[in-house]
Amino acid sequence: MRPNLTVNIGKLKLKNPVMVASGTFGTGYGELVDINLLGAVVLKTITLKARHGNPPPRIAETSSGMLNSIGLENKGVEDFIKNGIQKLKDIKALLIASIAGDDENEYGTLAKRLNRVGRIAALEINLSCPNVKHGARESLIAQDEKATYSIVRAARRATRLPLIAKLSPNVTDISKIAIAAQRAGADAVLLVNTFPAMAVDVDTKKPKLGNITGGLSGPAIKPIALKMVWDAYNKLDIPIIGCGGIMDTNDAVEFILCGASAVQVGTATFVNPNAPAEIIKGINKYCAKNGINDMNELVGSMKVGAL
Ligand SMILES: Cc1cc2nc3c(=O)[nH]c(=O)nc-3n(C[C@H](O)[C@H](O)[C@H](O)COP(=O)(O)O)c2cc1C
Questions:
Q1: pLDDT tens digits along 274-288
Q2: Taking the C-alpha atoms of 209, 125, 128 and 220 in order, what is their torsion angle to the nearest 10 degrees?
Q3: String of DSSP letters for 85-137
Q4: What pLDDT, in 10s, does the model give residues 48-74?
Q5: 193: exposed, middle or buried (Cβ count in 10 Å: 0-12, 13-18, 19+)
Q6: How much distance in Å is there from the Cα of 45 to the middle of ligand 1?
Q7: Which of 60, 217, 262, 289 could share a disulfide with 17, CB 3.0–4.6 Å?
Q8: Residue 303 C-alpha to ligand 1 middle, in angstroms?
């Protein structure tokens, strides 16, 4: 018998726990991979108005990871509703829209605009992009419990869609921010976005990114992201979606054992667009091999105590 891989995130029912992370997965990959196998596709973050993004270069490879400073380039929510969503019509997998704004009003408006776009199954609230400024704010929204609460609250009031709050790893205690998102009505938290980071070309003495700094992703961040999931797991009542450096099945299972109900895969798809599909197969095999009938039994089941 095949193990049950179905996972519930609020009202959202995923057929398996593997999603592709916002901004990393070209929907044009449809020619290379079967997108419909995925638990969900998280779309690139959209904002109220179009954004041109940051100056190039916007991507740089680092040891065991990559830096990006895309800066949320997108054509704005109205273009997405008018044209963008049409381009996704052949994708049968669940679509999750990701939104970012400067303040509560913008997040509320975005959530309201997307509320009735039939194909959108849930909203991911990006509170944590290290490559953009949120209005006059010096810090990220997800570095501030109060701001996290009020923005998730504004989105909660504007939509009945399931809400996922995407948090930043660049905080002292991630569980405090996660609890603020939960209190405000988030159905899940996503841990984590990229880590603020940089790299320098010693020959030119210039930064490798046009924006000087960017966000670090890939295997380099996995152990830190994992600890954040573990730290938050026992303190939350809502599910955690784990993200950060997941390259293969073992990485995904590690996140699940530490408390993630589902995972997102980003940088891995730059190396192998089929990684998410291979991870779904791998989780199936892992469950079968270990006599697990329901993947949900694995969530948070890491054994602690004497080694
Ligand atoms: C090129 C690139 C673009 C990204 N764009 C977004 C974005 O638009 N919105 C967002 O919430 N996260 C964005 N991210 C962050 C990823 O969704 C993910 O949280 C992060 O890369 C960590 O996962 P990974 O190590 O598996 O890549 C981006 C990451 C990369 C590498």
A1: 999 999 999 999 999
A2: -70
A3: GGGGTT--S-EEEEE--SSHHHHHHHHHHHHT-TTEEEEEEE---TTS--TT-
A4: 999 999 999 999 999 999 999 999 999
A5: buried
A6: 10
A7: 262
A8: 30
DSSP 141: G
- What's the 123 CA to ligand 1 centre distance in angstroms? 16
**How do residues 4-47 score in pLDDT, each as one tens digit?**
999 999 999 999 999 999 999 887 777 889 999 999 999 999 99
Closest CA to 276 of 41, 95, 66: 41
Q: Partners of 98 in the beta sheet? A: 124
- The per-residue pLDDT for 32 is 85
The whole model's pTM is what? 0.97
Which tokens in the block code for residue 303? 């054994």
pLDDT tens sequence across 145-195: 999 999 999 999 999 999 999 999 999 999 999 999 999 999 999 999 999
**Cβ 167 vs Cβ 194: under 8 Å:** no
The pLDDT of residue 91 is: 93
Of 29, 68, 72, 194, the one to substitute when testing ligand 1's pocket (max ligand atoms within 8 A of C-beta) is 194
Q: Which fold has domain 7-53+70-195+217-298?
A: TIM Barrel (3.20.20)
Task: Provide the token pair at 237.
Answer: 């009542």
For the record, the structure tokens of 58 come out as 């916007």
Q: Where are the domains of the chain?
A: 7-53+70-195+217-298
45 lines ligand 1 (CB under 6 A): yes
